[in-house]
Amino acid sequence: MVEEAQQSHRSLAEVIEELPNFQDPAAAVLDIAQSLAFAEDISQAAAEAQAKAILQAKGPQVIGATTTAVHQWRFHDESFYWHTKSDDKKIQRLASSMLRGGFLQDEPVTPRFNDMSAIQDSGLFSGGLVSGGGQARLLAAKLAWHVSQGVVSRLGLLPGIASVRAVWSSLLAIPTVFEQHLTEEDAMLSSSIKQNVRAQMSEQLHTLDWVVLTMKLAQAPLDGTPDQQRRLQKMFDGRAAGRKIIRCMSLRSLL
């Protein structure tokens, strides 16, 4: 797939967008069940029951830590991305790691919105979550799922292999944290903070981006009063990102 992206002069993220999407819960159940039946060496009926349990809807207002399957994320259009598309090398590196050891359970991802309501009357949810944090890892998870299925099919492996089961199980139970946001700006700001404070993230917001996001959320002018500056500083609880914004508040020349 990396070669396909290079030959077509497209990003790896764009190639991943064209992989099978699972907005239809029935298609998601079938794909998961076929993989589980092989990985765990169980009947198709038992695998389908497990797949339905994995895709169970969680309601319109999910808050807190849970797990999600790679099939429950919306990879196939631009709405998935909250910022820029992730770097090819980073996606490739993360996917390679997942193919060896699965999705790391101590690195949760976050969606932008909290709705995991059932699709129609299925009682299931699939293909709807959009990234709010951990975008590259989610893209890598989608790639790892697709590539691993292809490898297993081509090699004609016997069912019940422990290493395959471990990788697929981790991609069906991605650690996910749903945060409570009052507004879309609040969600975007939260994601932006995480993007900048984690050193391994490759895409950083520029100073002006920070100022615009923060001013929209706080409803404060760029040259805010000392009281407004203190309120913002308290909001960010002394983080480096907060101090950067405070220093920028008096720089009218940025506008």
Folded structure, characterized:
The chain is mostly helical. The radius of gyration is 21 Å and the shape is globular. It has helices spanning 2-7, 12-17, 25-39, 44-54, 88-101, 135-155, 162-171, 184-197, 207-218, 226-235, 240-248; strands at 64-68, 110-111, 131-133, 174-178. The protein has two domains: 2-178, no CATH class; 184-254, no CATH class. 50% of the residues lie in helices and 6% in strands. It has a two-stranded antiparallel ribbon with strand order 1-4. It has a two-stranded antiparallel sheet with strand order 2-3. Mean pLDDT is 80; it is low at 197-202, 237-241 and 249-255. It has eleven helices and four strands.
Task: Provide a short characterization of the protein structure.
The chain is mostly helical and 255 residues long. The protein has eleven helices and four strands, in the order ααααβαββααβαααα.
Q: Main traits of this protein?
A:
255 residues; mainly alpha; 2 domains; two-stranded antiparallel ribbon
Structural class determined from secondary elements: mainly alpha
* Measured distance between first and last alpha carbons: 42 Å
Order of helices and strands: HHHHEHEEHHEHHHH
Beta-strand proportion = 5-15%
Sheet of most strands: 2 strands, antiparallel
Q: Please estimate the helix content.
A: 40-55%
Write the layout of secondary structure elements.
Elements: H1 2-7, H2 12-17, H3 25-39, H4 44-54, E1 64-68, H5 88-101, E2 110-111, E3 131-133, H6 135-155, H7 162-171, E4 174-178, H8 184-197, H9 207-218, H10 226-235, H11 240-248
Antiparallel strand pairs: 1-4, 2-3
Helix pairs in contact: 3-4, 5-6, 8-9
